[in-house]
Design goal:
The chain is α/β, with parallel strands linked by helices. It is built from 27 helices and 37 strands. It folds into six domains: about 160 residues, FAD/NAD(P)-binding domain; about 120 residues, FAD/NAD(P)-binding domain (3-Layer(bba) Sandwich), CATH 3.50.50; about 140 residues, Enolase-like, domain 1 (2-Layer Sandwich); about 55 residues, no CATH class; about 120 residues, 2-Layer Sandwich (Alpha-Beta Plaits), CATH 3.30.70; about 160 residues, Sulfite Reductase Hemoprotein, domain 1 (2-Layer Sandwich). Strand 14 and strand 15 form a beta hairpin. It binds flavin-adenine dinucleotide. Flavin-adenine dinucleotide (FAD) binds next to helix 1, strand 2, helix 3 and helix 6.
Length: about 850
């Protein structure tokens, strides 16, 4: 049989791959006509192109692919399809032409500087344009859905000051509800993106043929250099339409439940097809169609049973996901404004079955929840939302639960691959079942099923290293490896990613104690470490000087006040007993820090995965109830552990008596004074899943206390996973707290002396990062708004005044933000 496939996108590729895998006798002569000039690639991961990642899909043997040769006409009667260079006859033809980005037909939409975001070529063009600019650039993304946010992130990474315009009243209107949209907006704004919801683009104006501004229907105007349209897609049905095939009222080649179009032996799959009255814009339904049509072409009788439409935002570093129904008869919601987490589970009217849900701010439960849609609840809704409750979920899922929705792989298939076909790691399960090969969100569940099937799990950090964070740490320490390029060259592969680079940067900082922004190490750091400051929602940075134990002299308070006044910084006392100065322009950071360092301040490491603060109560000096010098100890501990880089941030506190005014039991390590010495608690945290720290040792002398904290911290730094807080680290440890106690209190592994020595080295090698930066003109060069225009401040940063302090201009209107005090005059 001569088969011609028109379109070499993800779905066309899946079709020929499936055909070749199932058609053992090779009875199909397959030709693929591909408009794009590059081999098939993973469009879902398109934005990873900016990281230099390879996107190509595996090559399928025995298929003729005509790259750069688009089909221009189709003749169903003659059974031919024509391109600019040839005509091909077929016995069967599959249309897999995908979609094209929808560009609203507003005046100016074709000016130079207008882009879409669909192909690798689009990204090349956008990137070249942004980099060719001579100064700071502003960009507008039209569309605040999944795609628009990915495009806005791309602009941000290109150094363009990005605005997102969305017609609906919230971001991602198709996936999240109003409350989820509001929470998502806060996360996105924190990244420095400006959001305009409920606004319609009316036209794009240009100067000399290039984009210069956008005009909104409400009369508003925004100066811009780039416009990216990401306002949805339209099925590419032009070829079918011209050939007289039936197309849907809103576009899309109409196919029946078997993928057949209205013309004999012509099928359509993927985003160009309308099936069951619906056009799907996601890859999972496309794959289901491709496999169904492959089966039909081989004489089978497969039909389309619908497909999962769950989605998860990738790459922005903001967790947001929706699955199943996002509205229904009953729901349970959870909102935590402090950690910016919103979760909603939609339940059946008898509250026994999970129908779907929305997760914003923490989507770690996404894979396990999505697999439970349509099934009786395995636990209470709130327990389901907590990742700590994940343990054992895999075992409880029925065999029919769909673990990988992109590739429609059930738990039964995965377990049989593990137990029947000997798959012993995630890579093998992926290869054998395809689960986890598309969006990757089910990989944590694959790991869980491997563990629950009795397979000892390798803990590879990411695809570039087969080693876990702990193994990398040991390797670098023992072999004396001090650069990322040496490490990846000798023990990894590829160029590294957002996962392994910061981990290696953190390990290097722990081992070598050197300056974190020198040479190659600078390129490994994430944005905050890169500027030794936290990026805020309007593109400014925070300045947080260390105030050990929360104790500060009047002179130092005055300096902070003067600096804040002179640089017009918003000033706030934090829960960690120090003072945040917010709203600093990047080019002002060195001057601000010069004055602070001259007054004896140091970096507070608010930007780093490092020790933050050691909080204290007022202690015996002032308090009538105190039994030990809590302030003195807190100051000593904070000075001892300052600058210690760790897998996650570390917070601590010391309370001078059992009244616990410093809230030490909500910290990674907390010390509470007793009549006889100190009690030490470990593994506490606040946030979405608050955890009380647990008692590790009692009535310790100060010397013993410090020795045990030294060991605890160093053991954590060396053995925890990436981004694992101490609570999760202890929970994951075989034997939990008892094991930890045996290692660091009873020294069961004989490690105590080595851990203490490592901490002694850290203490001796500590140097303030901001002082080191100010002392070196080379290091100061990075503190400019625009690398290509170093003397130009970012013009988009502007402030208004709220309660006598500067706040970002354009924040949500006071009416929505300020608390309404019932019964009080306003
Ligand atoms: C940035 C981005 C992120 C995405 N993220 C997700 C996600 O997280 N989850 C998800 O499920 N989906 C996501 N998608 C959507 C997903 O990529 C698509 O659903 C999927 O690619 C559809 O596959 P397809 O083969 O139907 O179409 P396409 O991948 O668009 O392939 C169609 C191909 O056909 C070619 N073609 C068109 N006309 C002709 C012709 N006449 N002759 C020859 N060739 C022709 C096109 O050039 C194209 O190469 C994302 C898309 C983008 C752009």
């Amino acid at each position: 049989m001569k088969l011609v496939v028109v379109g070499n996108g993800m779905v066309g590729h899946r079709l020929v791959e499936t055909l070749r895998a199932r058609d053992a006798r090779g009875g199909c002569d397959i030709t693929v006509l591909a408009e794009e000039s590059r081999p098939a690639y993973d469009r879902v991961r398109l934005s990873a192109w900016f990281d230099g990642e390879a996107l190509e899909l595996s090559c399928v043997d025995g298929v003729t692919v005509r790259l750069g040769e688009a089909a221009t006409a189709l003749d169903p009667a003659a059974r031919t399809v024509t391109t600019a260079v040839a005509s091909y006859s077929y016995d069967a033809l599959v249309l897999a032409t995908g979609s094209s980005p929808f560009v609203p037909p507003v005046p100016g939409c074709d000016l130079t500087g207008c882009f879409v975001y669909r192909t690798v070529d689009d990204l090349h063009a956008l990137s070249a344009y942004a980099q060719a600019g001579s100064g700071p650039m502003t960009g507008v993304v039209v569309g605040g859905g999944l795609l628009g946010l990915e495009a806005a992130n791309a602009l941000r990474r290109l150094g363009v000051n990005a605005h997102v315009v969305e017609l609906a009243p919230r971001l991602m209107p198709l996936q999240v509800d109003e409350a989820g949209g509001a929470m998502l907006r806060r996360h996105i704004e924190e990244l420095g993106l400006t959001i305009h919801t409920g606004r319609m683009l009316q036209r794009v104006d240009g100067r000399s043929g290039r984009v210069s501004r956008v005009v909104f229907a409400d009369g508003g105007v925004l100066s811009t250099d780039v416009v990216v349209f990401a306002a949805g897609v339209r099925p590419r049905d032009d070829l079918a339409r011209a050939a007289g095939l039936t197309v849907g009222a809103r576009g899309g080649v109409v196919v029946d439940h078997a993928g057949r179009t209205s013309a004999p032996d012509i099928y359509a799959v993927g985003e160009c097809a309308e099936i069951g009255g619906r056009v799907y814009g996601l890859v999972a339904p496309g794959y289901a169609m491709a496999e169904m049509v492959a089966d039909r072409l081989l004489g089978g009788d497969a039909t389309f049973e619908g497909a999962d439409t769950s989605t998860k935002l990738k790459l922005l570093g903001v967790d947001v996901a929706s699955f199943g129904s996002t509205a229904g008869p009953l729901d349970v919601t959870f909102t935590d404004p402090a950690t910016r987490v919103y979760a909603k589970l939609v339940l059946s009217d008898d509250a026994k079955t999970l129908l779907g849900g929305i997760l914003v701010g923490d989507a770690s439960a996404y894979a396990t929840l999505r697999a439970q849609v349509g099934l009786p609840l395995l636990s209470t809704p709130l327990a389901l939302l907590a990742p700590a409750g994940d343990g054992g979920v895999g075992a409880n899922l029925p065999d029919t639960a769909q673990v990988c929705s992109c590739n429609a792989v059930t738990k039964a298939t995965i377990v049989s691959a593990i137990t029947g076909q000997g798959c012993a790691d995630v890579a093998a399960v992926k290869e054998c079942t395809r689960a986890g090969t598309t969006c990757g969100s089910c990989v944590p569940l694959l790991k869980q099923l491997l563990t629950e099937s009795g397979v000892a799990m390798p803990t590879a950090l990411c695809e570039h290293f087969d080693l876990s964070r702990q193994e990398l740490f040991d390797l670098m320490r023992v072999r004396g490896i001090t650069t990322f390029s040496q490490l990846i060259g000798e023990h990894g592969r590829g160029r590294g990613c957002d996962i392994c680079k910061p981990v290696v940067a953190s390990i290097l900082a722990s081992i070598t104690g050197g300056y974190i922004l020198d040479g190659e190490q600078a390129s490994l750091q994430d944005t905050n470490d890169h500027f030794l400051a936290n990026l805020q929602r309007n593109g400014t940075y925070s300045v947080v000087p260390r105030i050990p134990g929360g104790e500060i002299t009047p002179e130092k308070l005055i300096v902070i006040g003067e600096v804040a006044r002179d640089f017009q910084l918003y000033t706030k006392i934090t829960g960690g007993q120090r003072i945040d100065l917010l709203g600093a322009r990047v080019e002002h950071l060195p001057e601000i820090w010069r004055r602070l360092v001259d007054a004896g301040f140091e970096s507070g490491h608010a930007y780093g995965k490092a020790l933050r603060t050691v909080k204290s109560c007022v202690g015996t000096t002032w308090c009538r109830f105190g039994v030990q010098d809590a302030v003195g100890l807190a100051v000593a501990l904070e000075l001892r552990y300052r600058g210690l880089r760790a897998p996650h941030k570390v917070k601590a506190a010391v309370s001078g008596c059992a009244r616990e005014c410093a809230e030490a039991r909500s910290k990674d390590f907390g010390v509470i004074a007793t009549e006889n010495g100190w009690n030490l608690y470990v593994g506490g945290n606040g946030g979405f899943r608050p955890r009380h720290a647990e008692l590790l040792a009692v009535d310790l002398s100060t010397v013993d206390l410090i020795a045990i904290i030294d060991r605890f911290l160093m053991f954590y730094v060396r053995t925890a996973d990436r981004l694992q807080r101490t609570s999760a680290w202890i929970e994951a440890m075989d034997g939990g707290l008892d094991h930890l106690r045996s290692v660091i209190v009873d020294d069961s592994l004989g490690l105590a002396a080595e851990l203490e020595a490592a901490m002694t080295r850290h203490v001796a090698s500590y140097a303030d990062e901001w002082k080191s930066t100010l002392d070196d003109p080379d290091r100061l060069r990075r503190f400019v708004s625009f690398v290509n225009a170093p003397d130009t401040p970012d013009p988009s940063i502007a402030f208004s005044t709220e309660r006598d302090q500067p706040v970002p201009l354009g924040r949500a209107s006071p009416a929505r933000q300020q608390p309404v005090l019932v019964g009080m005059p306003r």
